[in-house]
Amino acid sequence: MTSTAPILETSFSDLSLVRRGKVRDVYSIDDDHLLIVATDRISAFDCVLPTPIPRKGEVLTALSRFWFEKLKPVCHNHLVTTCIESMPDSVRRHAESLRGRSMLVRRATVFPVECVVRGYLAGSGWKDYKRTGEVCGHLLPPNLREAEELPSPIFTPATKAEEGHDENISCSRMSEILGDEATNALRETSIKLYSEARDYARTRGLIIADTKFEFGIDASGRILLVDEALTPDSSRFWPADSYAPGHTQTSFDKQFVRDYLETLDWDKRPPAPPLPPEVVEATTARYLQAYSLLTGESLD
Fold first, then answer.
1. Are 102 and 37 in contact (CB under 8 A)?
2. Domains of the chain
3. Which residue has the higher pLDDT, 138 or 1?
4. Residue 54: CB atoms within 10 Å
5. Structure pTM?
6. Mind giving me the DSSP string for 156-177?
7. Distance set, CA 137 to CA 97, 103, 124, 155, 238 (Å)
8. Residue 167 pLDDT
9. Which of 41, 50, 182, 287 is a plausible cystine mate for 178, CB 3.0–4.6 Å?
10. Beta strands per DSSP E along 29-110
11. Coil, strand or helix: which one is 292?
């Protein structure tokens, strides 16, 4: 059984906290491994909201496990196990809190750039396109509609920020940060991962409009897919049966929370406002449905 009470934050006196991200708490296990705990925190507009989304951490962990396994032929990843019984004693003694929301992973040196792939015109990309005809330096055909599929997926990297807003950057700027070889490898791998996932999701009745990946290098110099993979936090999921370009789409991701926040008189700076119960419940339902549609299984 997994913990049913929502978890906003974890703390264990016998585990060494490495960092607390917007959603995940990361602990050091030994020289080679970390424990990544997906809490029920949710962020929007780069602010962590005070209201947890029950079961969100379970969905992020289970869906990442699913994608890590499915996409292994494209790129190796950092996952060792999500099974508490296979983890060290220091983790197992906290099984009640950690089961279902924890990943034991290999350590990696993480690239300081988020690798975003967009297959459809949505979100900030749509706003940029309306203003300039471009998305992150990519000149696109004229007269595209909101949510329209792009001629081919585009790679739009961004710098990572623990606090404040991530910043879109050009591939040339990414090359200045990482070098040409790493930039080319990450761009090619990101587009391959997105394309494989997009094609699979279509067979499950879902459109993956866009997503972001993070990568690292292990001790042997091998590139690994790290953090999470193709979750409702990192991707836009749209139901294929109701898809129609020209307007905002129904979604199974945290866009639902963003849309609610857009109706408020909030300047998108901390502190973020709380979420009402009906938004919380509907968000949990969307996350669980995304998992069920993609995997054919239920977390219940």
1. yes
2. 16-107 (3.30.200.20), 110-257 (3.30.470.20)
3. 138
4. 17
5. 0.95
6. --EE--SSS--EE--HHHHHHH
7. 44, 36, 13, 10, 25
8. 86
9. 182
10. 33-38, 43-44, 47-48, 79-81, 102-106, 109-110
11. helix
